[in-house]
């Protein structure tokens, strides 16, 4: 029981430490706090704020600068709160937007470099790289395997991988950089949930191990 609690605590701590989650929590807190305050300030004197949902609507419209103008504070306290919501809310929304953009850009960069952990299922692994691997991709494209996701695992340079992706636009191709004989690299490609694996001699890296030996090691790892 203690172990389950510790695992849950670690996962929760990891989630809460994520920049996007923190920014969303701040934005949510501002929305709830401002909605409660404007309800307190306005409900007795302003029939535009008849319940808490009217207040939440006003806060969201104010933060996002949509400015419908269908609900306007009339009390001095409500107007001051409106100014604060505009200043703080817009800043918080900007932080959320910037954080989300940063996360997406970082993820895209990591994917391009083959460093992103893949969350796939029923995909096909293509371990290693040589002319035969290119022929395999060509065959997949010609036979119309456009719904299958193919994950390349090799140590090609980033520009070479970009050329490969551009060469086969009809295929869903992902890339994981690394030695396909290493368990950690296979885990990053989510090999345990792959439906098939194709192993070819890897010419993308110079290794002291013969190609056949590396193929055997990869087979054992899979």
What is this entry, summarized?
This protein is an alpha/beta fold and 222 residues long. The protein is built from eight helices and four strands; from the N terminus they run ααααβαβαβαβα.
Number of strands: 4
**Terminal CA distance:** 33 Å
Number of helices: 8
Order of helices and strands: HHHHEHEHEHEH
Instruction: Briefly note the structural class of the backbone.
Output: alpha/beta
Shape: elongated
Largest sheet, order of strands side by side? Answer: 3-2-1-4
Could you say how many structural domains there are in total? Answer: 2
* β-sheet strand percentage: 5-15%
Write the CATH fold name of the largest domain. Helix Hairpins
Low-confidence stretches: none
By CATH, the architecture of the largest domain is named Orthogonal Bundle
Please describe what this structure looks like.
The chain folds into 2 domains: 2-113, Helix Hairpins, CATH 1.10.287; 124-221, Rossmann fold (3-Layer(aba) Sandwich). Helices cover 58% and strands 9% of the residues. The chain has 8 helices and 4 strands; from the N terminus they run ααααβαβαβαβα. The radius of gyration is 27 Å and the shape is elongated.
């Amino acid at each position: 029981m203690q172990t389950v609690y510790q695992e849950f605590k670690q996962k929760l701590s990891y989630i809460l430490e994520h920049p996007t989650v923190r920014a969303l929590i701040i934005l949510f807190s501002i929305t709830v706090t401002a909605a409660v305050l404007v309800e307190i300030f306005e409900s007795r004197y302003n029939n535009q704020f008849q319940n808490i949902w009217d207040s939440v609507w006003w806060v969201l419209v104010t933060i996002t600068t949509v400015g419908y103008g269908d609900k306007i504070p009339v009390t001095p306290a409500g107007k001051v709160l409106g100014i604060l919501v505009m200043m703080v809310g817009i800043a918080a929304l900007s932080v959320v937007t910037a954080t989300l953009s940063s996360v997406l850009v970082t993820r895209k960069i990591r994917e391009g470099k083959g460093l992103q952990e893949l969350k796939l299922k029923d995909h096909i692994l293509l371990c290693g790289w040589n002319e035969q691997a290119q022929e395999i991709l060509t065959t997949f494209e010609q036979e119309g395997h456009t719904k299958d996701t193919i994950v390349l695992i090799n140590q090609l340079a980033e520009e070479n991988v970009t050329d490969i992706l551009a060469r086969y636009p009809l295929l869903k191709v992902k890339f994981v950089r690394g030695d396909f004989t290493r368990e950690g690299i296979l885990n990053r490609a989510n090999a345990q949930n792959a439906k098939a694996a194709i192993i070819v001699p890897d010419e993308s890296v110079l290794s002291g191990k013969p190609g056949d030996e590396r193929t055997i090691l990869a087979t054992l790892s899979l």
